[in-house]
Design a protein that fits this description.
Nucleotidyltransferase, domain 5, 3 domains, six-stranded mixed beta sheet, five-stranded mixed beta sheet, 25% helix
């Protein structure tokens, strides 16, 4: 028997008053979330998350879930001024502009993932002088186009790289950012204010989690007693993943968002849904 999807929602007191609304949605094989903002003031009005009971095995199953959500959630059945979709997966790599050729998109991904002949490959422009090359969920894009018409889509790592570059480009020391979902960790490293690494790992236990963090630090000769680590996403200081990290990394903080929408939330951590709400 299929488990019913859990719905977590937080809304502002101004939700009903706003006439002009924009929609941002983010989806992965682990879940589906969306945020509604006032398109004039950019104020957050609604955040809703549907975490799946288990990781889905295919994009077709993801589309089935998303279709169910759109049919049942009235917040998604209104008119929006703009719509943005965020694809969250590990099917991504960064390519410097000097080496980028749009006719060879699949070859860039072939070094780290297996692509199929039928896969559509897209890319986002990055302000760091590179392209973010990735495989979007085309079936979900087609579904969204049928519902909304024209919309914008990006990879979630594009937003992480851009937002963190803008925020920490003056920082002189080594910094590691770890963006955590229920079963995945994105690791980004900046050195002297410059982006140097993005990688994404799935984990099943706390030992997997700390292994990938220490492995990335070792590859760049980062001293665990000296560099700063910032957590964002699905993690707080009483999680096992946090505790084991603190045994090895001295300087740990939580990434501070540019809003206070989740400070008194019953469901969400203040630093969660970083890419969706920023």
């Amino acid at each position: 028997m299929t488990k019913k999807m859990q719905k977590l929602k937080q809304k502002s007191n101004k939700e009903i008053l706003s006439e002009h609304k924009s929609l941002s949605i983010q989806f992965s094989l682990d879940g589906f979330s969306f945020c509604i903002k006032d398109s004039v003031t950019n104020e957050i009005l609604v955040l809703t998350e549907y975490p799946f009971s288990e990781t889905l095995s295919s994009p077709s199953l993801l589309l089935d879930k998303i279709t169910q959500i759109f049919e049942s959630d009235k917040d998604l059945q209104i008119d929006f001024d703009t719509v943005k979709a965020i694809h969250e997966n590990r099917l991504v790599t960064q390519v410097p502009n000097d080496f980028f050729d749009e006719s060879h998109l699949k070859s860039y991904l072939s070094y780290s993932i297996k692509t199929l002949a039928s896969d559509f490959v897209a890319y986002d422009d990055l302000t760091i002088g590179a392209k973010n090359v990735y495989v979007p969920y085309v079936n979900v894009n087609n579904f969204l186009f049928e519902n909304f018409g024209e919309f914008e889509f990006k990879h979630h790592s594009t937003l992480l790289i851009e937002q963190l570059t803008e925020k920490y480009n003056q920082h002189e020391n080594d910094i590691m950012f770890v963006h955590v979902t229920h079963s995945n960790a994105d690791i980004l490293i900046f050195r002297n204010g410059k982006f140097v690494l993005f990688n994404s790992f799935s984990f099943q236990c706390k030992e997997d989690f700390i292994y990938y963090i220490l492995f990335c630090a070792e590859q760049l000769n980062m001293n665990p007693d000296e560099f700063s680590l910032y957590f964002a996403g699905h993690i707080i200081d009483d999680f096992e993943t946090y505790s084991i990290t603190h045994k090895y990394i001295k300087n740990i903080e939580f990434l501070q968002p540019n809003h206070d929408f989740l400070e008194k939330s019953d469901f969400f951590f203040p630093h969660s849904h970083y890419t969706l709400l920023s």
